[in-house]
Amino acid sequence: MTGKPISLKILAAHLDLTVPTVSRALNNYPDISPATRDRVKRAADELGYRANQNARRLSLGTSETVGYLMPRFSSAIAQPFVAQLLQGLGEALGKRNWDLLVTHAESSKDELSQIERMVRSGRVSGLVISRPLKNDPRIRLMQDLKCPFVVHGRTASYKNYAWYDVDGEDAFETSVNHLIGLGHSRIAFVGAPLQYQFVQDRLNGYQKAIVGNGLTVDQDLIQISDFSDDGGEIATHALLDLVDPPTGIVCLSDTMALGALAAIRARGLVPGEDISVVGYDGLKFGTHSNPPLTTMAQPQAHAGRRLGDMLLAIIDGDDPSKHQELQRAQLLRRNTDGPLPTTQALNDILSREELQ
Amino acid sequence: MTGKPISLKILAAHLDLTVPTVSRALNNYPDISPATRDRVKRAADELGYRANQNARRLSLGTSETVGYLMPRFSSAIAQPFVAQLLQGLGEALGKRNWDLLVTHAESSKDELSQIERMVRSGRVSGLVISRPLKNDPRIRLMQDLKCPFVVHGRTASYKNYAWYDVDGEDAFETSVNHLIGLGHSRIAFVGAPLQYQFVQDRLNGYQKAIVGNGLTVDQDLIQISDFSDDGGEIATHALLDLVDPPTGIVCLSDTMALGALAAIRARGLVPGEDISVVGYDGLKFGTHSNPPLTTMAQPQAHAGRRLGDMLLAIIDGDDPSKHQELQRAQLLRRNTDGPLPTTQALNDILSREELQ
DNA sequence: CAAGCCTCCGAAACCGCTTTCGGATTTTTG
DNA sequence: CAAAAATCCGAAAGCGGTTTCGGAGGCTTG
Questions:
Q1: pLDDT recorded at residue A354
Q2: Same structural domain for residues B92 and B223?
Q3: Would you give the distance in Å from CA A89 to the centre of its chain?
Q4: How far apart are the first and last CA of chain B?
Q5: Are residues B152 and B174 in the same domain?
Q6: Which positions of strand D lie within 7 Å of protein CB atoms?
């Protein structure tokens, strides 16, 4: 357990065999007698031999490594998903002793050239892309480079590559339907810029549910802001300033929902009583918000493992379009959803607001 | 922008030069005429040549890669720190085009053998270790392997290796002093098992402040539980069940503090009024707890960059013990700290509790 | 007992890049 | 203008593995 690493050469000399023979013994070639195979393996164990990976991979012509691009814009609160995803990816890759390379780019240009470099320099044999735009240049690039990849999320056209996504459209339909079931009819959507496909998906679900229930989509009730708690807060304030404010709000994410709660409380209103709020993500932290956040929960840890498995399968030659998985989110009721306030209650609200 | 990667050989043939010449031209060797150097570089750009990293690193005898071990036990809520650390590390390493390898082990045994393998197989030239135990076997191992490493945190004896840590002892002194300044005298400590050095450090600070103010350390007021929000909740319930419960609580982490708030609210008490709570970490989501959490804040993003810089310096040959950085945490007052309730108020509390 | 067949290992080549060394050409020098 | 010095590039070797190929030796056959 010390100094210089043990090379095949040293091991071979030690065994009085040649390097290729030792290599084949360790790799269970059939043309090596069981006797010497065991002898070699025992010696390798004793000396603590570890094949040099750079040499091995150069020879094999593979990197046995997969890259993960950290999302550039991620609110400080929503980051848990990164750690969990990495953990799941690591598990999937670990089964084959593959490595996981993590990179973070400053700008979109940097990101593209980083990808190009990583792939063409043979550092990675596959990539995991998070949170794609509607029309994501990274996907085009990967296709041009003919390098395997999987996407965590979907783009506008998602036929011909592999992805794992949670059905945001479906989720927002159920959350809106849930609020309508509670008697609400003025329901708002708090979201982020539509360049990200997942925002569009969720907005679609919102609109689908509104229309599906015979209501009409009111553009005033669709507030786009920053993808952060502060963004949610600003958007919600705008909603509350409306002449005819909403009684229910569905938020793009738990993080934005936290901001919504803050805005509602700031007005002296009570989330879940005066105004209902539903988030999206199912982050554990939501149990500690004020009040605990009702949300659309999804199995986060699962995503990493599935993405890893899918990517390995594709690298093995599978058709990417065969690997497309849509997960459903489930309503997790905590305390920010409630029945539509009665007229009496509404008057109370109005008077309370006037006091401010 | 297509198919097979461009090798030096192809590039050389294209230029009617030999491989070594092209290599030296690209690496700015002085024995290559400026004319051909430029010619080579231009061609390399045009063809999109990228040196094969496995080959390059094999030849160079270095991996140009640093490993990060994801902490095994980390509460789902506290994970943001991982993403931020990775981001900072990536930044530091990116300046030299080094790679960041992330691994996650199931058990402690797995972790040790993983480290051993990573280092001896030449996959990494350095390691970042998070959240060390008091006496961490990983550190012993790395020292035995003579492989550069930096520790995010400290062990019991921290003289002879590199680390970056936040002064938990100092932080808990100031938080306890803060509560004492507000009139509190029965102050509790909610923590996790002492096998982790950072727990011990913070407990030391707590005790130091208690004693320093002429109070005596009451073992009943030191509650050890799981390092999670649930753990904090359980511990706090135990404290509130005491005959003479505390009026102030300092918590090992923001996550545990959230649990403490939940326990306090569950008793019908108001955190910050009836009982003060101070967390530790300064996580952003603390602004959204009920009520917003007072905490000891620290610059998280900074840690990753510093750790990366330190590690690179050590790999370059610097003496590890020269790289030891202690950061101070700062009190971030939000709404869970308040003056000691008056006697009248205390009676109210008691009667409220009896109602339950 | 010779021919033929396995068994098992060594020799050689290669993966793509880097570095040392030597020598051909050009330039400087006396 | 010959000799010495400087300039620039090619040849060769090496990094540490893997894989293909061939052949020596021991077995089985007829």
A1: 59
A2: no
A3: 11
A4: 72
A5: no
A6: 7-22
Identify the residue whose tokens are 């002879």.
Answer: B160
Contacts B55 to A, Cβ<8 Å: 54, 58
Cis amide leading into A71 (omega within 30): no
Based on the number of CB atoms within 10 Å of its own CB, is A230 exposed (0-12), middle (13-18) or buried (19 or more)?
Answer: middle
CA A57 to C1' D17 (Å) is 8
Are residues A101 and B101, on separate chains, in Cβ contact within 8 Å? yes
pLDDT value, residue A1? 42
Residue A355, pLDDT above cutoff 60 = no
Chain B 56-115 contacts with nucleic strand C (CB below 7 A): 56, 58-60
**Residue A281 is inside which H or E element, if any?**
strand A276-281
AA letter at A123:
R
CB of B94 within 8 A of CB of B313?
no
- CA distance linking residue A334 with residue B223, whole number of Å: 29
Report the pLDDT value the prediction gives residue A106, as an integer from 0 to 100. Answer: 85
Q: Are A151 and A90 in contact (CB under 8 A)?
A: no
Q: Which of A261, A265, A259 is nearest to A356 (CA)?
A: A265
Task: Give the pair of three-digit tokens for residue A124.
Answer: 């990675």
Name the residue of chain B whose CA is nearest to A123's CA: B53
- List, in order, residues 6 or more apart from A1 with CB less than 8 Å away: A48, B144, B145
At residue A78 the predicted structure's pLDDT band, cuts being 50, 70 and 90, is: low
Alpha carbon separation from B356 to B246, B276, B343, B352 (Å, rounded):
19, 21, 20, 7
pLDDT in tens, B121-171: 999 999 999 999 999 999 999 999 999 999 999 999 999 999 999 999 999
The CATH number of the domain holding residue B215 is: 3.40.50.2300
Shared-domain flag, residues A111 and A176: no
- Return the amino acid letter for A134: K
* Whole-number Å distance between alpha carbons of A33 and A36: 6
Please check whether residue A140 lies inside any domain of the structure: yes
In terms of pTM, does the model score above 0.90?
Answer: yes
- How far is residue A232's CA from residue A236's CA, in Å, rounded to a whole number? 6
Residue B77 has pLDDT above 70, yes or no: no
Q: Which two tokens stand for residue B260?
A: 């403490």
Interior angle at CA A116, CA A110 and CA A121, nearest 5: 125
pLDDT classification of B1: cutoffs 50, 70, 90: very low
The answer to whether the CB atoms of B5 and A123 lie below 8 A apart is: no
Find, among A227, A225, A228, the residue nearest to A237 by Cα. Answer: A225
Q: What is the pLDDT of residue B81?
A: 78
Residue A177, in any domain of the structure: yes
Q: Which residue has the tokens 């005429």?
A: B33
- Could you give the maximum distance between any two Cα atoms of chain A, in Å? 94
Asked whether A8 and B152 are in contact (CB, 8 A), the reply is no
B240 with B348, same domain: the answer is yes
**Mean confidence (pLDDT) of chain A:** 93
Are B175 and B331 a contacting pair, CB within 8 Å? yes
Q: Are residues A202 and A345 in the same domain?
A: yes
Q: Judge contact between A292 and A265, C-beta under 8 A.
A: no
Neighbours of B108 (CB within 10 A): 12
Counting the structural domains of chain B, the total is 2
Q: Do B285 and A284 touch (CB under 8 A)?
A: no
Average pLDDT over residues A291-314: 93
Handedness of CA B80, B85, B86, B88 (dihedral sign): positive
Which range is least confidently modeled, B53-62, B68-77, B249-258? B68-77
Q: Three-state SS for A247? A: coil
Closest Cα of chain B to A282: distance in Å? Answer: 12
Domain interval for residue A221: 168-297+332-355
